[in-house]
Design brief:
Elements (H helix, E strand, L loop, with lengths): L2 H9 L9 E3 L22 E3 L24 E3 L12 H4 L5 E3 L22 E3 L11 H8 L5 E2 L12 H102 L1
Parallel strand pairs: 1-2, 2-3, 3-4, 4-5, 5-6
Pfam family, one: LRR_9
Main location: nucleus
Keywords: Leucine-rich repeat, Nucleus, Repeat
Length: about 260
């Protein structure tokens, strides 16, 4: 299958910007270069081109790669690449793992362009002719002092940890950071909700206080009305007693007048 068609199939109805891993192993490269890869793959982190040599002349260069600012791992192993590494630093600024094993690299000088890489961590050159040179490992580490692992071993000949485990660990850390951010947002939202609830409670308390004051005011008015009613009743009773006394006085006066008339007769 040619490379362009394979890229189309690998997209699986995604946009290029959504793709983080792209595997084009065993594809055909009719002109010896990468075909069909666009600069729109801006979030690509892993790109594999293993054994792209089924068509003649096979993959002989990666010089026509587009700029992939987030690419970390490039694996064009088991091909016929012999040069064309001078563009790596410019087009792949965040490249950390480069696997060129099984290619046609013969001289240490072929690797000089890799010196411009900012953060190379691992370089694999298994089954390349350059590995047969005297002091091969020492020469490569001297050429690339920022390199951590060469062919799976560091300067002290200690084996590199499993690369997949490292990638998984990085992804786990990213997931943990995202979860912490989400938890922080949830906590902030909960605090805002609690604040709103407290404001509502305060408003309810204020309403209750206002209602209580209104009730007290009404009760006071009713008491005043009650006192006024009692005062009116007392005044009515006093008026009745005065009228009775007046009538009683009039009756006595009439009686005295009657008695006086009888005496005169």
């Amino acid at each position: 299958m040619d490379m362009k068609r394979r890229i189309h199939l690998e997209l699986r109805n995604q946009t290029p910007a959504a793709v983080r891993e792209l595997v084009l192993d065993n594809c055909k490269s009719n002109d010896g270069k990468i075909e069909g890869l666009m600069a729109e793959f801006v979030n690509l982190e892993y790109f594999s081109l293993i054994n792209v040599a089924l068509g003649f002349p096979g993959l002989i260069s990666v010089s026509n790669l587009p700029k992939l600012p987030k690419l970390k791992k490039l694996e064009p192993s088991d091909n016929r690449i012999f040069a064309g590494l001078d563009m790596l630093a410019e087009k792949l600024p965040n490249l950390t793992h480069l696997n060129l094993s099984g290619n046609k690299l013969k001289d240490i000088s072929t690797l000089k362009p890799s010196k411009k890489l900012e953060c190379p961590k691992s370089l694999d050159l298994f089954n390349c002719e350059v590995t047969n040179l005297n002091d091969y490992q020492e020469s490569v580490f001297k050429l690339l002092p920022q390199l951590t692992y060469l062919d799976g071993y560091d300067r002290e000949d200690s084996e590199t940890p499993d690369s997949d485990a490292e990638v998984d660990a990085d992804e786990d850390e990213d997931d943990e950071d995202e979860e912490e951010d989400d938890e922080g947002e949830d906590e902030d939202q909960e605090e805002e909700e609690d604040g709103e609830e407290e404001e509502c409670d305060d408003e309810e308390d204020e309403d209750e206080d206002v209602e209580g004051e209104d009730e007290d005011k009404v009760s006071g008015e009713e008491e005043e009305c009650g006192h006024d009613g009692e005062a009116d009743e007392d005044e009515d009773e006093d008026e009745d007693e005065e009228e009775e006394e007046e009538e009683s006085g009039k009756g006595e006066k009439r009686k005295r007048e009657t008695d006086d008339e009888g005496e005169d007769d």
